[in-house]
Structure to design on (281 residues):
């Protein structure tokens, strides 16, 4: 029996900024990456194997995946036959506004994988509402239902200790990377800017604080910026230059590895502006 080809369908709701994705993958889906948004998804078919919070998770049909902004994660098939899922990308501002009546201003997901049939059904319904013509009130009602079912899974963010010198070094290096995402800074220069003894001390401190290397972190910053530029209508070549990628093909490879769709296809879906080069995974 032949395995269906990989496919990604994305819908962008301009009024709320929420994105709905329906995807199917035969094996590998995407490399380790981060998002600016809150991710809430449900597995429809197969076994969805993903890394999050330092451990591998296996999501089977009906299970719900919850990933916070900036949480690194990947995706691949956990069994033969591939997998399919639906996912909502909820902007931070939208979620914050929806939780305005909830104590605590910095919530977090209690777990990255859970069993909640009602939430799974709400996610499926919202994806359908955003992916097909629907009245504004119907779309809002579907998203409100997701938010209502999310509340039991949200708790206050844990207090983070300020740490010592290593934590300060990591924090300063992170600030340097955020200040100029497109800059071509070397490890030695970054270590000096962060006040580290050398690049090796910086690498240890940064990984301890953020779970990855400065280079991998910078790549994720560039991909997130590219998503924002493409969603705003920027062409892939211009986005690649603005984000510090070597060229459009470099952005294309990294973008597809991270999100399962080409930059041109993502731009077309977000802006309704067709592009001859646009195609999906």
């Amino acid at each position: 029996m032949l395995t269906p080809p990989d496919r990604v369908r994305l819908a962008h709701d301009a009024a709320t900024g929420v994105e709905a994705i329906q995807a199917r993958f035969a094996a590998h889906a995407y490399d380790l990456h981060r998002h600016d948004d809150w991710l809430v998804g449900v597995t429809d078919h197969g076994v969805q194997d993903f890394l999050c919070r330092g451990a591998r998770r296996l999501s089977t049909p009906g299970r719900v995946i919850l990933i916070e902004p900036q949480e690194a994660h990947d995706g691949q098939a956990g069994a033969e036959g591939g997998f399919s899922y639906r996912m909502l990308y909820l902007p931070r501002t939208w979620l914050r506004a929806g939780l305005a009546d909830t104590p605590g201003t910095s919530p977090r997901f209690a777990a990255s994988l859970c069993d909640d049939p009602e939430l799974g059904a709400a996610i499926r319904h919202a994806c359908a509402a955003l992916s097909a013509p629907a009245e504004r009130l119907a779309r809002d009602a579907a998203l409100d239902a997701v938010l209502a079912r999310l509340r039991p899974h949200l708790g206050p963010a844990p207090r983070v200790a300020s740490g010592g010198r290593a934590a300060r070094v990591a924090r300063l290096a992170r600030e340097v990377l955020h200040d100029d995402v497109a800059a071509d800074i070397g490890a030695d220069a970054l270590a000096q800017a962060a006040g580290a003894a050398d690049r090796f001390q910086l690498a240890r401190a940064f990984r301890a604080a953020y779970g990855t290397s400065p280079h991998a972190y910078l790549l994720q910053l560039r991909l997130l910026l590219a998503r924002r530029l493409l969603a705003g209508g920027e062409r892939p070549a211009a986005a690649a230059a603005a984000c510090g990628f070597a060229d459009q093909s470099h952005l294309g490879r990294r973008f597809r590895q991270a999100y399962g769709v080409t930059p041109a296809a993502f731009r077309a879906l977000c802006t309704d502006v067709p592009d001859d080069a646009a195609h999906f995974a």
